[in-house]
Amino acid sequence: MKALVKIGGSLLDDPASRHDIARQLAELSASGVAVSVVHGGGKQMTRFLDERGIQSTFVGGLRVTTDETIDAVMKVLAGSVNTQLVAALCAAGARAVGLTGIDSGLATAVQLDPALGFVGKVVSSDPSVLNALSSNGFVPVVACVAGGAQGEVFNVNGDSMAVAVASGWTVDRLVFLTDVPGVLDGSKTIIPTLTVADCRSLIETGVATGGMQAKLNAACEAVLGGVGEVRIVRGSDAGIVSRVFAGESVGTKVVAA
Ligand SMILES: Nc1ncnc2c1ncn2[C@@H]1O[C@H](COP(=O)(O)OP(=O)(O)OP(=O)(O)O)[C@@H](O)[C@H]1O
Ligand SMILES: [Mg+2]
After folding, report:
1. Distance (Å) from CA 150 to ligand 2 centroid
2. Is 123 in contact with 64 (CB distance < 8 Å)?
3. Where are the domains of the chain?
4. What is the pTM of this model?
5. Cα dihedral sign for 160, 165, 171, 177?
6. Ligand 1 interacting residues, C-beta cut-off 6 A
7. For the chain, what is the mean pLDDT?
8. How far, in Å, from the CA of 136 to the mean position of ligand 2?
9. Does domain 2-255 correspond to CATH entry 3.40.50.1970?
10. pLDDT (tens digit per residue) in 49-64
């Protein structure tokens, strides 16, 4: 089985949570699942910029990315967040390798919208590097940074990056580990299953906003693109990775129709 696990940045910020998730992913890899990881780091980015007096501006859940921001993306996402996760995975016994979408054309992007600056939309994904690593027992860990045709560096929302890589690598399963127990309805109850139409309506009615809006758009793209199973769960729930891979109905499952 081939699986892509996307880890939200806030789960990686706390060392205990980072090591716990790393241990579970190392176990998953040892059980024979070919796993690749994509991670975000929104919280770490905001903190880094705050510390330097740079305000973060979001449009539709996406961070407006100036020259200064893209430099921070390389330092924080491709740098410290990626390296800390790789270190935790290696400590847990996995043969983790850190990379970004720029490596070997894993994710090539174009500018999404001039108003957002260096925010990229991934237009192609060459999975060769994932195949080369995965078939030799390595666990690729991809920071959500993509390359442009002219050598530009683009900031890509972690969820969009996960879907682009999952589609290019043709995974069986895509799991989003986030900081909420699933997609919540208006009365904060977990919604067990969502169709693409349900996702659109949650966004239109303003129930799913910000990061969850971006995640649902990404999840819809994944199921419409043929990813077998897409699930959104809370990464801090005990043993969550093995529960998901054992087929437990936890969190929210997104289906085509
Ligand atoms: N209907 C909803 N149900 C659940 N969460 C929601 C909803 N609407 C908005 N949210 C917000 O979406 C957030 C999850 O998205 P967010 O982008 O913050 O996390 P992530 O994608 O896991 O991490 P990162 O962006 O660092 O990769 C939740 O913490 C919550 O505040
Ligand atoms: Mg997010």
Report:
1. 27
2. no
3. 2-255
4. 0.97
5. negative
6. 8-9, 40-43, 158-159, 178-180, 183-184, 207-212, 215
7. 96
8. 30
9. no
10. 999 999 999 987 789 9
